Amino acid sequence: MLYRNTAILVTFYKFTFQLTKPHAMVFSRLTIFFVLFFSGISCTNDPSPWAFSYPGDAFTDSALLDLRYLNEDYAGQHGFIGLSEDGESFLREDGEPIRFWPVNGGSATRSMDNEELAWHARFLAKQGVNMNRWHGSINPAGKGTRLFEIDTAEAVFIWRFVAAMKREGIYTTISPFWAHNGHMGGWVPEAWGIEGYSGKDDLWEVMYFNDRLKEAYKQWVKYLYTEENPYTGVPLRDEPAVALVQIKNEDGVFFWTMQGIRPELERLVGRLFAEWTVEKYGSLAAAYQAWEGEKLVKDDPVTGILGIYPTWEMVQEVAGGKAARLADQTEFYAHRQRGFYNEIHDFYRYELGCRQLINPNNWKTASPEKLNDLERYTYLDCEVPAVNRYYDPGHYGENNGWRIDPGHFYQGISCLKQPLRLPVNVKQTAGAPFLVTESGWNLPHIYQSEAPSLIGAYQSLTGVDGFYWFSISSRDYMEFPYFEFTKDTAGMYAMNRWTYSTPGGIAQFPAYALMYRNGYIRQGEVMVHEVRNLESLWRRESPLISEESSFDPNRDQLDGIDPMDVHSELNPYAFLTGPVKATYGGDPAETYITDQLPELVDMESGTVESVTGELFLDHRHGIFRFESEKAAGLAGFLGTKGNFSMEDLSVRTSNHYISIGVVSMDQLPLDESSRILVQTGTTYRPLGWEQEEAQYVRGNDTLQGYTILNTGKMPWMAQPTRVEITLRNRNINRAVLLDLAGYPVRELDVKRRGDALLVDLPPESLYVMLMK
After folding, report:
1. Could you tell me if 529 and 581 are in contact, meaning their C-beta atoms sit under 8 angstroms apart?
2. Per-residue burial over 407-421, b = 16 or more CB atoms within 10 Å of its CB, e = otherwise
3. Which residue ranges of the chain lie beneath pLDDT 70?
């Protein structure tokens, strides 16, 4: 659909981006003038979309919105990041608590020169970011390499990245290895000497069993952490700006890929399992007796090899000798994986001398119900457990793991209407912090703007300690979120599925990063604390409460498997009321379940309230409300109701869908504050985007959604804001519209009604500052 004045806006937008970066900065304010003139005036009379055109930034003091001040002068200024006394939160070395608003953004910086990288780090800090994850590969890459070589170019990229982020008060998480073939340079050489693996093979699960690959890993990270960083003069092991070391990314013995290992590795696993079994029972004969004679075809007791059940069997109900043998295989897997993490943790800590906190992994399992607790158990010897968990758009089509093409199907349901899939609904390990190290509302979601408000609020409530948005793929906003080599005969391009450098993504950070990092939403009391004995884990018994899984288009491709098929004895809406914890290795009689759940979860009306009383979700209508002393707001399908009243804030809107955050900038209550940010987010689509209602058959299910007809082109077109707010506050008498970089554009008309201030937000608003 085309809108009045859009053609003029797009012509001017294209002109500015044909300029060099310095000249584009000169024209940036002029761009905003044209955007406001053409789209703003138009929207006043006709609610047409406006072009989202970022003006660039020289980072001057005239900006009214800049969250750089939340960060330290430089990351690590007050020493290494440690843990609170109860082990569940992060502290600086000087004892001050610290909260992280993290992103995944390392790979985007490879193509930046030093000046661009410095600018990018400053941009992230301004948006509220204080942690950035480098997810890369320190291993040798591709044909002609040898296993114990180091990718020194990757090490230099990491060192430069750490230094640049450090200068802007942004800590770094380093993820140095992923077993995906693409992170091996697309090719595993036979010269690596990993029996059974070469060419385009992935190395899933190999490192848990293959000592040669494990020793190579140690060699790679030794170089990375002990060589002097030429950009700082300090080896990473001594660098407090590196907050977290990840051992590996997305791998584990309890996922489906374990049943696809190569025969050579399967025999090695079978030999190690037999050795473990003999140690437990004294002999294989005694083990067979304990297993009631249960044997597998691949058992070879003479050579000391036991067959292993495929992962499928681990998620089924079994009995008798098979159940006993499968419990032993499960226990063996768990000890093997935990032992690996323990060994590598101690290698980092004691042999390399790394002082950082260590995360073992972040992966999911074949069954959240039966295997997730096992996965988390294997993390216990490291300080920080984590998971990667996305809110997926239900996107299907060829190559949907990395691109969005015309002809693809997606559902695009708001998380507000299926909140059990909220990525921070996690069962946290008691006595440890918990991170979600990759997540986001991936494109082609149109409801991205709900995400920062939901995450900022619910991770505050539940005590989740960091949510890493995936991924930042540009120096600011992605000017061309398409793959240039994919242009088809109709002139359309495939779109980047994973970018969060969007108007609905990183543009929505400031209000909610500020709210979360300043603790404006209270953490609730523990609602459920499940204590599990280890035998129940080995038997893969269902816990009292389970997380829902997330769908990964690159890994969840097994026919007949529904990753969302999860059953809980307790109502899983408990995740939305307050923290849910678990202890692995204890007396189940010590399990605690609050008696408040029936009061907070109303299944008949479709509503859930937090135990703190500050968060309220109507998932039947898709409306979220948060209200605390220093922050208040709404998100979702607000136009279905139109008017909302809270203690200090009232909102009137005709927007079908919008997020609205009102957040104190000076840490004073909203009714006393002298500076308040009003941030809105609507829906955003590329110019010319087209779709039509459609159905898609997946397995036995027929999904309702949309077929993409045209992926459009830049710029992003934003639905206009149609909101009037009334705020109870005597101190504020001004409202200033800000541009997309946080600089003042113009004063807005305000009205007073006693103690209340009334502001009619302009259609083109994203940020409005209320001031004295």
Report:
1. yes
2. ebbbbbbbbbbebbb
3. 1-47, 549-566
- Residue 392: C-alpha distances to residues 69, 422, 547, 574 (Å): 33, 10, 15, 22
Tokens 């843990």 belong to: 83
66 DSSP assignment: -
Q: Is 396 helix (H, G, I), strand (E, B) or coil?
A: strand
Structure tokens at 769: 């500052």
- Number of Cβ within 10 Å of residue 284's Cβ equals 16
Query: Tell me, what's the pLDDT at 19?
Result: 40
444 upstream amide cis, omega within 30 of 0: yes
Question: pLDDT tens for residues 702-761?
Answer: 999 999 999 999 999 999 999 999 999 999 999 999 999 999 999 999 999 999 999 999
The whole-number pLDDT of residue 551 equals: 56
Q: What backbone phi and psi angles, to 5 degrees, belong to 470? A: -120, 120
Q: How far apart are CA 556 and CA 256, in angstroms?
A: 8
CA–CA distance from 27 to each of 31, 34, 54, 455, 503 (Å)? 6, 11, 11, 35, 20
Question: Is residue 217 classed as helix, strand or coil in its secondary structure?
Answer: helix
Give Cα 169 distance to the centre of its chain: 21
What is the rounded CA–CA span in Å between residue 324 and residue 539? 8
Cα–Cα distances (Å) from 411 to 256, 395, 606, in that order, read 25, 7, 21
User: What secondary structure letter does DSSP report for 267?
Assistant: H
Quickly list DSSP for 311-376: HHHHTS---HHHHHHHHHHHHHHHHHHHHHHHHHHHIIIIIS---SEEE------S-TTTTHHHHH
Task: Report the b/e string of 5-36 with b at 16+ CB within 10 A.
Answer: bbeebbebbeebeeeeeeebeebbeebbbbbb
Question: Residue 176 corresponds to which tokens in the numbers above?
Answer: 């140095």
CA distance 162 to 242: 7
3 state DSSP class of 411: coil
For residue 261, report the phi and psi dihedrals to the nearest 5 degrees: -65, 155
Q: How much is the pLDDT for 479?
A: 86
State the Cα–Cα distance between residues 360 and 383, nearest whole angstrom.
8
Q: Which residues of 683-709 are buried (b: 16+ CB within 10 A; e: fewer)?
A: bbbbbbbebeeeebeeeeeebebbbbb
pLDDT at 20: 38
3-state SS, residue 703: strand
Which tokens hold the place of 558? 């097994």
* Rounded distance between C-alpha atoms, residue 570 and residue 572, angstroms: 6
Task: Report the chain's terminal Cα–Cα distance, integer Å.
Answer: 41
Give the C-alpha distances (Å, rounded to integers) separating 126 from 58, 64, 130, 448, 667.
12, 11, 10, 20, 18
> Could you check whether the bond before residue 471 is cis, i.e. omega within 30 degrees of 0?
yes
Extract the tokens encoding 98: 């610290």
Q: Shortest CA distance to 205 belongs to which of 439, 537, 555?
A: 555
pTM score = 0.93
Classify residue 317 by burial, with Cβ atoms within 10 Å: 0-12, 13-18, 19+: exposed
Among the listed residues 395, 686, 712, 408, the one whose alpha carbon sits nearest the alpha carbon of residue 556 = 395
- Three-state secondary structure readout of 229-250: CCCCCCCHHHCCCEEEEECCEC
Q: Quickly list H helices, 36-148.
A: 41-45, 114-127
What is the reported pLDDT for 190?
A: 97
Classify residue 25 by its DSSP letter: H
Residue 108 in 3-state DSSP?
helix
